[in-house]
Amino acid sequence: MTSALEAQALGKRYGKRWALRDCTIDIPKGHVVGLVGPNGAGKTTLLKLAGGQLEPTTGRITVLGERPAAGPEQLARVGFVAQNTPVYTGLSIADHLRLGARLNPRWDDTMARERIASLDLDPAQRAGKLSGGQRAQLALTLGLAKRPELLILDEPVASLDPLARREFLQGLMEATVEHELSVVLSSHLVSDLERICDYLIVLVDSRVQVIGETDELLATHHRLTGPRRDPGTLPAGQHVVSARHTDRQSTYVVRTDGPILDPAWTVTRLSLEDLVLAHMDKRPARARRADLEVQR
């Protein structure tokens, strides 16, 4: 089965700085993928590589089985909504729809006009007069009416208020189900990803830290709390993701496929936000070792 997005040893460098490196991923079709990480982690770079706006420095990337932006047919299969949901402020909503119809061979004009009507937007209204939420909905409509197989969204709701975010994400989910889209969505707001995504990629320091279906990731990550203990004493199958220590107590987030049998541990499940924050905890190793030394 063709992957929605596949990369092997993918890297992008600007001068001497690596914005993305050693990125290997394989995302099956049919998922809503959440891409999360701190500022500067490489999220936008990965999405622009997938959209064909950038060329890799190293490695390779394919989108729907083809090189990004390989030609008009491949471009028609991928929708892209960039950061800040850019629209042309001097054009009306109707102008945007006409432009979309002219530029996209698979354009669904009926769907676009019905969606604008369902949002109670006036087609004669200029985009520059719309609220942030309305501009986001217009940008989403343009991306959906293209009738892509893969829709890429780069921080589309970052600047929206909670109500506008909820309405945008609800519209996205309805369209995903109706049109059987694959979606890759980057966001800082893990609560939004938890609501709609069934697949997760965490990028930190330009590298992939964890990737997989959210249900599987949540089932294999656990928080262990118990008497203070060196991580070297944990079973080999328990990979330590993050650690915190006091004088008497240790708290670990571990990833393991097997049961946790040590009765000294209190084991609790993680939320998706807990899991993401654990993988984003990349303090230097010496700082973690220092936590293990009893404070004097």
TrEMBL record:
SUPFAM superfamilies, A to Z: P-loop containing nucleoside triphosphate hydrolases (SSF52540)
Residue intervals of the ABC transporter domain: 5-230
Alphabetical list of InterPro entries matching this protein: AAA+_ATPase, ABC_transporter-like_ATP-bd, ABC_Transporter_VariousFunc, P-loop_NTPase
Molecular function terms, GO-annotated: ATP binding; ATP hydrolysis activity
Top-level division of the source organism's lineage: Bacteria
Keyword terms, alphabetized: ATP-binding, Nucleotide-binding, Transport
SMART domains found in the cross-reference section: AAA
Annotated PROSITE patterns: ABC_TRANSPORTER_2
Protein name from the UniProt record: ABC-2 type transport system ATP-binding protein
Organism: Nonomuraea jiangxiensis
